[in-house]
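Tutorial handout. Part one gives the primary structure; part two gives the three-dimensional structure as tokens.
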Amino acid sequence: MSVVFSCEKKSSAFTSMSGAGLFILIFFLFFVSASLYAKPKNKVLVLPVTGTINDATALFIERSQNKAAQEDYSLLILEINSNGGLVDSAQKIKKLLLSDKVKTAAFVNNHALSAAALIAICCNNIYMAQGSDMGAATPFKINTSGTSIAPVEAKFLSAFKAEFTAAAEARHRDIRLAAAMVDPEHETIDGLVKKGEILTFTTEQAYQHGYCDGIVKDAADIAMMQGFPSNVQIDRVKPTPFEKYVMYLRTPWVTGLVFAVGFWGIVIEIFMPGFGVFGVIGILAMLSFFWQSFFMHLAGFEMILLFGLGILLLLLEIFVIPGFGVTGFSGILCIIGSVIMGFGGLQQTWDAITALLLYSFVFGFLAWKLIPRTKLLHPLINDTAMTPEAGYTAVEPSLYEHLKGMEGVTASVCRPSGKIRVGGELYDAVSEGEFIESGEHVLVINVEGNKITVRRIAG
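Part two.
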């Protein structure tokens, strides 16, 4: 019996100790979880959305959104003052904001027009400063030079209107009002906008019709309306110098101008002896053009390599290989391919060509008018009259006459121009139209000034 009694006593003691340990473990886990998850995250991050909306703006918003999510910010405020920008960039931003990585609030501080209005609607809440406006989002086409503005086709208008209504629907706002910001073909909305007009909200109108959740003065007012304590931590994020630079470069007319300067700088340098200021300007402009495309993830290093290969092939064609053939054509194709990658599409490239022609005309006119009058650039012009009286001649009439009737060997392919060697000397020559391979025996049949015409010797 003593054995049985002893076993029962040990079992009771063990059960009692297990129960106490389990209670302590549960209490410890509850305390730890409470300290980890019940701690309020009273942090707000504010970022500015200003100027032209473009792909650089989208990257900046994405970086800010990731920062807010990773550093436990409870609210991301987009302080908007923009007249709009590129449709495809606004679509990228819409996708970012509707992903709800972090709660967002738009603060319309002056203007949120066109693409900027779409950004505001995509946020969880919209707040506006007194005297601000939002809407006027009818899309239009503008080329890279910024000189041509035209309405878009009906299908593009319908697609952009769908972007607005989808965003409004996702944020539980009146989709009729979102559509009226884009398309004038809507029914009259009493007290707000007539049929055939584009809707642009004032602050009071937006508040009355559910497109503004509060009229505020600053980010602190928004934090208070969102239920944050008065001592809430409000931080601001700004674009880096590189982001600001790219935002400026991605403005359509600036992109076209940079490309035009780079193109003509390199072209002029190719045909000038030595290496000078035009080459430096051209290379710097082209590096800026390709660098911003690389930064925007439009293309990688292959874009720069392709452009460099194209320039190299053209130089070979101009200075090494006579005539113009496969090498030069391949160089042009490489350059065109790199430019298409740099601009991000065929339409943008076509716009750039339009801008290039326009800027070329302007630059040419200014150069013609201004260079002769400036002390700095006038020395570049040789204005000496090269008259026969001064001893100048285009070519000595008898300089090459002795070659007529002589035989020689082609030193390069003549197609029809090329080089020949006669009596150990090298001369530029042309055939009668036929292609003559290098190493063929030829006869000089005619000499006119400095033009030497040759014919293949049969056999």
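Part three, for discussion. The chain has 14 helices and 15 strands. The longest strand covers residues 104-113.
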